[in-house]
Amino acid sequence: MYLYRTILSQAFKNVWRNKYLWFFGLFAALVGSSGEIQILFYRYDSLSEGLFPGLRRIIETGFFSKETIANIGQLARVEPFSLFMIFSLFIVFVALAIFIIWLSISSQAALVNNAAKMKTDKKHNFKEGLEVGMKNFWPVLGLNIFLKLIIFVMFIILSLPIISSIATGNFTATSLIFIISFLIYVPLAIILSFIVKYAVAYVVIKGSRMFESIKLGWQLFLKNWLVSIEMAFILFFISFLAGISLLMLLLIFSVPFLFIIILFIKFSLYFYTWIIIILAVIFYLLLILLTGAILSAFQVFSWTGLFIELIGKGGVSKLTRVFSKKG
Questions:
Q1: I need a labelling partner for 207 at 20 to 30 A (CA). Which of 65, 89, 198, 316 fits?
Q2: What percent of the chain has pLDDT over 90?
Q3: Model confidence at 64: pLDDT above 70
Q4: pLDDT at position 314, please?
């Protein structure tokens, strides 16, 4: 546990002392840079909805129907300015989405870079981290797309026999196929997550090319697969405790808010009641975002610290040390 304790304590100290990292952590969380065990719950609860449940819901709205296209044509003739405003808002929305993706990927790379710099006591700051993030945007984006695409393809392939079995109405066979598919999907998805995590570190820290980094990440995982799994479970446990602590904190803060709200309602001060409700929602949202940002930065720092240890001194898993002592 000494290896993990050192890495985790350093990661927490660096993230807590350098609060600009929270900004990177907030956006890095959007690309799923925190945790691997969450893959256990990745869309396997929606198998019964079909292969493309999200796409199906969009189609069901009728947005791509002939009536919608006809209405757009009618609006162009009758209210061209309204149509122009709608498309302008759509373009703004798309531009904002692209900006957030760019910032999220750059933030992920920035955290890896600054974690490596702090590990070796080199100069680091917000600007330098963002510049490195921007420099490595495309390969890191490619690695994230690679991970999500492969996981999605695996999900689709493993869903086919389940959906086929559901059509036959054989509940026993469906349950058995579901369990087998789940047991295949989860390990492969988690392994891919490890590989991509190490690959991102190779790209940002070592300057490797995208496909070369995937190969190197795979080799590093093979040599240290047990250490990687142990680290993932430790970080998952820390995230779980952080989630419980946040929930308890929100419940504690709810007491004074509820007291004030009840008091205002009693005296018919409804306007001030709504102000308190809005302030409470804003406060809770900020607290949740702050916790998520810190936790995301902490996890990226922890994995980067482990990566540096593994490619440097190497590492031995806790289980290996325990059983070697018993032997």
A1: 316
A2: 58
A3: no
A4: 74
